[in-house]
Automatic annotation (TrEMBL), chain A:
Residues 92-392 form the ABC transmembrane type-1 domain. Its main location: membrane. PROSITE patterns: ABC_TM1 (PS50928). Belongs to the binding-protein-dependent transport system permease family. HisMQ subfamily. It is a multi-pass membrane protein. The keyword Ribosomal protein does not apply. InterPro entries: AA_ABC_transptr_permease_3TM, ArtM/GltK/GlnP/TcyL/YhdX-like, MetI-like, MetI-like_sf. Pfam families: BPD_transp_1 (PF00528). This is ABC transporter permease subunit.
Automatic annotation (TrEMBL), chain B:
It comes from Sedimentitalea todarodis. This is Amino acid ABC transporter ATP-binding protein. Keywords: ATP-binding, Nucleotide-binding, Transport. GO terms for molecular function: ATP binding. The lineage of its organism: Bacteria, Pseudomonadati, Pseudomonadota, Alphaproteobacteria, Rhodobacterales. The keyword Nucleotide-binding applies. Belongs to the ABC transporter superfamily.
Automatic annotation (TrEMBL), chain C:
The keyword Transferase does not apply. Keywords: Cell membrane, Membrane, Transmembrane, Transmembrane helix, Transport. The keyword Membrane applies. Belongs to the binding-protein-dependent transport system permease family. HisMQ subfamily. This is Amino acid ABC transporter permease. Pfam families: BPD_transp_1. It comes from the Bacteria. It is a multi-pass membrane protein. The chain crosses the membrane at residues 45-67, 111-132, 144-172, 184-206, 226-249, 261-289, 301-324, 345-367, 398-417. It comes from Sedimentitalea todarodis. Residues 226-421 form the ABC transmembrane type-1 domain. It is found in: Cell inner membrane; Cell membrane.
Length: 404, 255, 433
């Protein structure tokens, strides 16, 4: 046997840059970097040249100048003398508001429709299929415009509620649908209302604590306490008691017709409703498909195996099917949330003042700072989607199946 | 049996592995492997799972990279030079446990792909060669079917034919029968025996001890990344020297 | 009792097979079906009745409105006269403004046959791509189609599409000559030859070639209506597939720099809404081109939408690549195929086949998203409705009919594409892969 254990080292040749596995990847990566830098430099020089020719520059000073326009739906105080930055911030909050609302309703709708698509009832199944197909195959933009149309064209004006020969009336004297938006009662937080709220939060915790305790008792002693009724009781009873003991501190302010318009209560503008509702039903159709796929992904063998062990149908659902189905459902669900957030940018169509409509719409048009506005806009959405994918990664890592 | 044992082994070296080591991260998979394969040898490698036997033969055609030591196949050093790697791969045929036929190509296309693209043989000639080898593995009538339409045993025979179309000088088999139903194992083994009788140099990772007795001129037992014992089959099976070999043989032959 | 009966009979041979018989009458039939599917329990029966009521309410309000619609008046006022207080649809806006909805309001009406012809040719061109059983020779027409369609829709001199075609053909010939040596030689050789042909040819085509051309030229900004949606959808999807493949391969590559570039690109595009990319197209992209180049809005929008869908298609293809067993690459390696050959001959054909349903889904989504161009004041079908139609004096106030029409148009296209995708998925599942 030879004593040489490693191959003799060769003299370096230029051809080894491509042919030798040791240098090959470095060569290709170097080429990639050079190409990238070259194209960025090319685009950058074009940009600089064009800006110079147009007499423009890149500057973010416009953010601190007064915006000069009004926003009809704001979550924080704002007037047209506030800066563009604050207007953008109002927009961000509005984006988050409509996304958040739509995420909740879309999830409810989607889970509902997805479960019903697997119903034993033929006609329910078919109706849900029609819902899913109709909403998935027609652009969201059309839905937003249609629902906005229903809100503004078909709803009565506030005038219709007036006088003795009113053609429209408020529902339960509390909710009014008008072409300017929907008026609902606003909660009024009186003194002592914080106590009620605190009791409510505590009782939610208490409910979960009770359920944990019951499970622990089952595991330790084999004794099974009833779950459902005590949970419901813990959820409601203390809050209701506290509410009356504190002397009904939380009241409602009803909207009322004063002059030509409704006063008081909470106004949800037509644009917000159109956007919220359209995003919900549209995304709900997609979520329904995810939910259906998730439940179907749990193989029938799992249900059968659990049944063979003697578990009752309810327990099979809770202990065997749902934990597995959620693993399949939640990742696409989270990306649907991301889609909702991105699609909320269509607000600009109906004049809902989200970030795209404020920063990317009016501010951009008034200041002419197109490049800066578009970049900031993209940055905002990127941050949101990075946050959402972070959540997704955490979830995926936490629930990864332990497999060989 | 007696006939195959008489097969000549030349003294020309086909593969020479010297002091070869391989790690997966910190895990030392192959330790100081020294192995010289002469032309015409039929070597069976066995050992418990995780002993590194598959890794060893996958190192020979650079499917896995070794970190230390030398591998010389047919006088070509397996180095980091891609040209050498490509040369060795086209000289060495390999059959996998899961056949790895290309499901989107017909049997005939599976067999002609590499000759056309690697050896630059004209299509017509490549097809003639392919039909020749398909006849040899006894499935010329399936040439226009897709792999998915064939049984496992047929697929593995196609895989052997596909390798042979490259006219390899060495054949590597990585557990060629362990994914097969029992009744299909024989047809694949028969093909391999035929190949051996024609003097092909073969390295075969397998647990088919009958095959080893009948065809091999050398049996190698590996454990924990090392070659523990090697011997002629008669001697290996009847009179194993190492304790670990004895234990292994008693476990797989015991039932 | 005889002794025989005490022994259990173990041995048994069946000599007469039992023939299949019909099920008992209560296990099949329509009544049984209704029982099982509609009224299996009280809850179910309740659901059935509620659903039937919902269907009745919807149909009873929508059907009369639709069926009683008026199709042949020339303005809303006239239509209202005809309806005479009856609540029904004024579909006459559709028949009267059909051409505008389809082609936009500036496209010269005497040339409507050109995009129409291009549309039907597109169906022929798409067929062999969508249905594998059709003769492969039809792909030749698919290859020619882009040039024909360009010429038909934009018109102008036939020399430019012809030159583009010749460049592509010569480039392809150079590629197939050189690719047997190495892929890189073929790829760059092909591009070099094509560029050379285009450059030389571009010098040869006279400036005024478009004057008095067989098909008079139409400017990009004159395109509109549903035609614009179709053109954007088809162009961007077909352009983004190759780009998506490259991005997916880059993302799977073991070169960290290449992988990093691809990941950043894909995640960036997927992280922002399409609308912001369209803003880029309308207000920003022009700054990135050389000052003397004029790139019209249509092309800028095509660039951005292509990048957008390429990122999504890349993710679909990445899934397809990941779904392939590792053994395929190993088998290709062990036969001595190099990286480019293994990818081109073994990996991609299989990965693409798996990815087709996903790509089709992206295509449906993208097609729906082409309506967003109305935000940057391009007059696609939604843009036409929101702009010129609703603002016109004749039809100001026709709202539902127009949106219903647009919705049905998109539904037909998207639903049939997604049905195709499901059919394909079923077929691939049973295919002899």
């Amino acid at each position: 046997m030879t004593t040489i254990t490693d191959p003799p080292t060769e003299q370096f040749r230029l051809s080894m840059l491509v042919n030798d596995t040791r240098y090959r990847s470095a060569t290709f990566q170097a080429i990639a970097v050079i190409l990238l830098v070259a194209s960025i430099a090319y685009l950058g020089s074009n940009l600089a040249k064009n800006l110079r020719e147009a007499g423009l520059n890149i500057s973010f000073n416009f953010l601190s100048t007064p915006a000069g326009y009004d926003i009809n739906q704001t979550l924080i105080s704002y007037n047209n003398q506030d800066s563009n930055l604050r207007a953008a911030f109002v927009g961000i909050l509005n984006t988050l508001l409509v996304s958040f609302l739509a995420c909740i309703t879309a999830t409810i709708l989607g889970v509902f429709a997805g479960v019903l698509r697997l119903s034993q009832n033929w006609i329910v199944r078919k109706l849900m299929a029609v819902y899913v197909e109709i909403f998935r195959n027609i652009p969201l933009l059309i839905w937003i415009l249609v629902i906005y149309g229903i809100m503004t064209v078909s709803m009565p004006g506030p005038r219709a509620f007036r006088g003795d020969d009113a053609t429209s009336s408020m529902i339960l004297d509390a909710v009014a649908f008008t072409n300017r938006g929907v008026y609902i009662p606003a909660p009024v937080w009186g003194p002592g209302s914080m106590v009620v709220a605190a009791v409510f939060v505590l009782s939610v915790f208490g409910m979960f604590a009770y359920r944990r305790y019951a499970t622990k008792l089952l595991y330790d002693t084999g004794r099974l306490l009833p779950m459902l009724w005590p949970s419901v009781a813990i959820f409601f009873v203390p809050s209701v008691l506290a509410f009356f003991i504190m002397g009904s501190p939380i009241g409602l302010e009803y909207p009322a017709l004063k002059g030509f318009n409704f006063q008081g209560g909470l106004k949800i503008g037509a644009p917000l409703i159109a956007l919220w509702f359209a995003l919900s039903v549209y995304t709900g159709a997609f979520i329904a498909e995810n939910v259906r796929a998730g439940i179907q992904a749990v193989s029938k063998g799992q249900t059968e195996a659990a049944g063979a062990l003697g578990l009752r149908p309810g327990r099979i659902m809770n202990l065997v099917v749902l934990p597995q189905a959620l693993r399949v459902i939640i990742p696409p669900l989270i990306s649907q949330y991301l889609n909702i957030t991105k699609n909320s940018s269509l607000a600009i169509l109906v004049g809902y003042a989200d970030i795209t409509a404020t920063l990317g719409g009016i501010t951009m048009n008034q200041t002419g700072r197109a490049i800066e506005c578009v970049l900031l806009l993209m940055l905002f959405y990127l941050v949101i989607s990075l946050c959402i994918s972070l959540v997704m990664n955490i979830y995926n890592n936490a629930t990864k199946l332990q497999e060989r | 049996m007696a006939e195959t044992a008489r097969l000549q082994v030349s003294d020309e070296v086909a593969i020479s592995i010297t002091n070869m080591n391989k790690w997966y991260g910190a895990f030392h998979v192959l330790r100081d492997i020294d192995l010289t394969v002469y032309r015409g040898e039929r070597i069976v490698i066995c050992g418990p799972s995780g002993s590194g036997k598959s890794t060893l033969i996958r190192c020979i055609n650079a499917l896995e990279e070794h970190q230390k030591g030398r591998i010389i196949v047919d006088g070509t050093e397996l180095s980091s030079d891609l040209k050498n790697i490509d040369k060795i791969r086209s000289e060495v045929g390999m059959c996998f446990q899961h056949f790895n036929l290309f499901p989107h190509l017909t049997i005939l296309e599976n067999c002609t792909l590499a000759p056309i693209w690697v050896r630059k043989i004209p299509q017509k000639e490549a097809q003639e060669t392919a039909m020749h080898f398909l006849e040899k593995v006894k499935i010329p009538d399936q040439a226009d079917k897709y792999p998915g339409q064939l049984s496992g045993g047929q697929q593995q025979r196609v895989a052997i034919a596909r390798s042979l179309c490259m006219r390899p000088r060495v054949m590597l088999f990585d557990e060629p029968t362990s994914a097969l139903d029992p009744e299909m194992i024989k047809e694949v083994l028969d093909t391999m025996i035929e190949l051996a009788e024609e003097g092909m140099t073969m390295l075969c990772v397998t647990h088919e001890m009958g095959f080893a007795r009948q065809v091999a001129n050398r049996v190698i037992f590996m454990d924990a990344g090392q070659i523990v014992e090697q011997n002629e089959p008669e001697e290996f099976f009847n009179n194993p020297q190492s304790e670990r070999t004895q234990l292994f043989l008693s476990q797989i032959l015991g039932h | 009792m005889s002794e025989n009966n005490n022994k259990p009979a173990v041995a048994f041979v069946r000599d007469t097979p039992i023939p299949a018989s019909a099920p008992p009458s209560n296990a099949a039939g329509p009544i049984r079906w209704v029982q099982d599917n509609l009224f299996s329990s009280w809850g179910n029966a309740f659901l059935t009745i509620v659903s039937l009521y919902v269907v009745y309410v919807v149909l009873s309000s929508v059907l009369p409105w639709m069926l009683g619609g008026v199709w042949n008046t020339s303005s809303l006022a006239e239509c209202r006269d005809v309806l005479n207080g009856r609540s029904a649809a004024c579909f006459s806006v559709l028949s009267e403004r059909w051409n505008q909805l389809m082609f936009g309001f500036i496209y010269p009406s005497e040339f409507y046959w050109r995009p129409t012809l291009a549309f039907f040719l597109m169906l022929i061109a798409a067929a062999p791509v969508l249905f594998f059983d059709l003769p492969r020779k039809m792909l030749i027409f698919t290859g020619l189609f882009p040039f024909i369609a360009f010429w038909l829709i934009w018109g102008g001199t036939i020399l430019s599409p012809l030159l583009a075609l010749v460049g592509c053909l010569l480039g392809y010939m150079a590629y197939s000559k050189l690719v047997t040596r190495t892929f890189a030689a073929g790829f760059f050789g092909g591009i070099a030859v094509a560029t050379l042909v285009w450059w030389i040819g571009g010098l040869l085509i006279p400036e005024n070639a478009s004057e008095n051309a067989m098909l008079p030229a139409v400017a990009s900004r004159d395109l509109g209506g549903f035609m614009l949606n179709m053109m954007l959808g088809v162009t961007c999807v077909s352009l983004s597939v190759p780009l998506g493949i490259a991005l997916a391969l880059g993302r799977q590559s073991d070169l960290p720099v290449v992988k990093g570039i691809c990941v950043i690109f894909i995640e960036f595009i997927r992280g922002v809404p399409l609308i912001t990319l369209l803003f880029v197209a309308s207000v920003m992209l022009a700054y990135l081109f050389p000052p003397d180049a004029t790139v019209d809005l249509f092309l800028r929008v095509v660039i951005m939408i292509t990048m957008f869908s390429a990122a999504y298609i890349a993710e679909v293809i990445r899934g397809g690549l990941a779904a392939l067993p590792k053994g395929q690459k190993e088998a290709a390696d062990s036969l001595g195929l190099d990286y480019a050959q293994a990818i081109r001959l073994i990996i991609l054909p299989q990965a693409l086949k798996i990815s087709i349903p996903g790509i089709v889904n992206v295509a449906v989504g993208l097609f729906k998203d082409t309506t967003l161009v109305s935000v940057i004041s391009m007059f696609d079908v939604v843009g036409m409705i929101r702009g010129p139609l609703l603002a016109s004096t004749e039809w100001n106030g026709v709202y539902w009919e127009l949106f219903l029409f647009a919705a049905i148009l998109f539904f037909i296209v998207c639903y049939s594409i997604s049905q195709y995708s499901q059919w394909l998925e079923r077929r691939l599942a049973t295919d002899h892969r």
